[in-house]
């Protein structure tokens, strides 16, 4: 019996498209999901950042009206992406025992828009107008819980919260549960929809966001010497993972293997990465070790690089330590911004598609590489290259580090 | 207020909150067993009914309103 873990289904809704295929095609075509924010609060609060990566397809266009009104936007995107992944995997209620099915969906922030809207109602018209659904809509385990109930998953429903590493951590958690024999199939990923005045204001005050308001599509530019911060995005990425023997027994198509995972913590600072990249390097090294991969096997790293001045270069230091100077890098946030708790999951999907199609998308807006980066970073056009294995990095405020090592099949 | 008027108004609320087709909201239907409405949605329906019909529906009364007909009768009797 093969104890390898494979990916059999993918789903996503992102600033580039309402599904995986549209998102992937838009990335390869060099499109940007970033645009000017036209919300009233942007001018009312005089925010220095007036751009964001909004969803390409509104969840309310996809979900039935009554279902949509019972879900926070963060839960809506998780439901949309999970249904796509489930269908893509060719699963139905008869193909997996509910007691062997788990759901793990992380989020960085949870139902921020519900919290804000319901607080407005409490402070204004008062208690009677506060929705009885407030708590299930704002709780950060809401996305996982709703998907778990819909699929009748009974092997466990979990919601890792580790800021911008949450989505990747969900996938790492799934790997460990499957390896431990606690489930046969797991629906895992991340969801985020927290574009609001207070989150934008907080990130602006931390001086982490781009203020290139005049050129929205050029604002997110990882590894470029002229980068000035990240662009906030929203969306969800979900994958179906299962043991290889289970997938083969039901004749499922297999995108790639999740060969190994690594997690670590910096123990250093609440927002800044350890400048030596030691924690990040340990996560990557652990992913290789658990995946029984040599550094030479890793042809590509799909980077976390958010387009901030410090983080992007530090990540390449960690990659040099753990793998070397040979992997070809790309940073998807140039295309669709920073999806926070969904970022790691959507970017894991991008990594899987790079392995499947033997192509690495370009880092959008990378025009002049930061001289601190020694690696070959794909810029301009996508790069055709045969890959045996690739690593996807995700790091979060708090010093959370997650590395996922995928292998081609 | 006439029973028919209350039923029609209540059915609008149930359709808005729970997505049940207005024609399916008839007096003999149980909110929970027939219309699949959970306790959270019942709170929303009660608050909207209070506003629409100018009645008070205390929580202990709400617990007794098992069917659409129960709610219509309560609202009809208590409308000021």
Automatic annotation (TrEMBL), chain A:
SMART domains xref list: PKS_KS
Top-level lineage group: Bacteria
Keyword Amino-acid biosynthesis in record: no
InterPro entries associated with the record: Beta-ketoacyl_synthase, Ketoacyl_synth_C, Ketoacyl_synth_N, PKS_Beta-ketoAc_synthase_dom, Thiolase-like
Pfam family, one: Ketoacyl-synt_C
Domain Ketosynthase family 3 (KS3): 2-408
SUPFAM superfamilies, per the entry: Thiolase-like
Alphabetical UniProt keywords: Transferase
Family in the record: Belongs to the thiolase-like superfamily. Beta-ketoacyl-ACP synthases family.
Name used for this protein in its record: Beta-ketoacyl-ACP synthase II
UniProtKB/TrEMBL annotation, chain B:
Entry annotated with the keyword Heme: no
GO MF term set: acyl binding; acyl carrier activity
InterPro entries to which the protein is assigned, alphabetical: ACP, ACP-like_sf, PP-bd_ACP
Domain annotation Carrier: ranges: 4-79
Top-rank taxon: Bacteria
Signal sequence extent: none
Pfam families: PP-binding
Chief localisation class: cytoplasm
Keyword annotations of the record: Cytoplasm, Fatty acid biosynthesis, Fatty acid metabolism, Lipid biosynthesis, Lipid metabolism, Phosphopantetheine, Phosphoprotein
Location of the protein in the cell: Cytoplasm
One GO CC term, this protein: membrane
GO biological process, one term: lipid A biosynthetic process
Residues that bear O-(pantetheine 4'-phosphoryl)serine: 39
Keyword Cell membrane: no
Post-translational modification: 4'-phosphopantetheine is transferred from CoA to a specific serine of apo-ACP by AcpS. This modification is essential for activity because fatty acids are bound in thioester linkage to the sulfhydryl of the prosthetic group.
Pathway: Lipid metabolism; fatty acid biosynthesis
Summary of the function given for this chain in its UniProt record: Carrier of the growing fatty acid chain in fatty acid biosynthesis.
Family: Belongs to the acyl carrier protein (ACP) family.
Protein name: Acyl carrier protein
Organism this protein belongs to: Kibdelosporangium phytohabitans
């Amino acid at each position: 019996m093969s104890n390898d873990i494979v990916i059999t289904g993918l789903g996503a809704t992102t600033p580039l498209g309402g599904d995986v295929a549209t998102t992937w095609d838009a990335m390869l075509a060099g499109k940007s999901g970033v645009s000017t924010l036209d919300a009233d609060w942007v001018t009312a609060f005089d925010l220095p950042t007036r751009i964001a990566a909004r969803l390409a397809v509104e969840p309310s266009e996809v979900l039935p009206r009554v279902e949509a009104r019972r879900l926070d936007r963060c839960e809506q995107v998780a439901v949309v992406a999970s249904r796509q992944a489930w269908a893509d995997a060719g699963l139905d209620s008869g193909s997996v025992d509910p007691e062997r099915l788990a759901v793990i969906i992380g989020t960085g922030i949870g139902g921020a828009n519900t919290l804000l809207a319901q607080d407005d109602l409490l402070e204004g018209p008062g208690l009677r107008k506060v929705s009885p659904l407030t708590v299930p809509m704002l709780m950060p385990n809401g996305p996982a819980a709703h998907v778990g109930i819909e699929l009748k998953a009974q092997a466990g429903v979990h919601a890792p919260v580790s800021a911008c590493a949450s989505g990747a951590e969900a996938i790492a958690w799934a790997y460990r549960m499957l390896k431990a024999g606690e489930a046969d199939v797991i629906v895992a990923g991340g969801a985020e929809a927290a574009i609001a005045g207070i989150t934008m204001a907080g990130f602006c005050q931390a001086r982490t966001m781009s203020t290139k308001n005049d050129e929205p599509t050029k604002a997110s530019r990882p590894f470029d010497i002229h980068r000035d911060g990240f662009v906030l995005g929203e969306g969800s990425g979900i994958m179906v993972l299962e043991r290889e023997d289970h997938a083969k027994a039901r004749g499922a198509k297999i995108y790639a293997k999740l060969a190994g995972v690594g997690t670590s913590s910096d123990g250093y600072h609440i927002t800044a990465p350890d400048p030596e990249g030691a924690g990040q390097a340990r996560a990557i090294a652990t992913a290789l070790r658990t995946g029984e991969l040599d550094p030479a096997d890793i042809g590509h790293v799909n980077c976390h690089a958010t387009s901030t001045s410090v983080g992007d270069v530090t990540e390449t230091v960690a990659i040099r330590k753990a793998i070397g100077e040979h992997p070809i890098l790309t940073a998807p946030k140039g295309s669709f911004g920073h999806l926070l708790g969904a970022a790691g999951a959507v970017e894991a999907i991008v990594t899987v598609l790079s392995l499947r199609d033997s192509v690495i998308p370009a880092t959008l807006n990378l025009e002049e590489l930061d001289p601190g980066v020694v690696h070959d970073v794909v810029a301009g056009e996508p790069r055709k290259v045969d890959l045996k294995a690739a690593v996807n990095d995700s790091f979060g405020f708090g010093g959370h580090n997650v590395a996922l090592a995928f292998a081609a099949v | 207020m006439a029973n028919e008027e209350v039923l029609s108004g209540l059915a609008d609320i149930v359709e808005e909150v729970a997505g049940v087709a207005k024609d399916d909201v008839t007096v003999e239907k149980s909110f929970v067993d027939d219309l699949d409405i959970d306790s959270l949605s019942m709170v929303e329906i009660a608050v909207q009914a209070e506003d629409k019909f100018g009645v008070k529906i205390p929580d202990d009364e709400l617990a007794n309103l098992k069917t659409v007909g129960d709610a219509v009768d309560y609202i009809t009797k208590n409308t000021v």
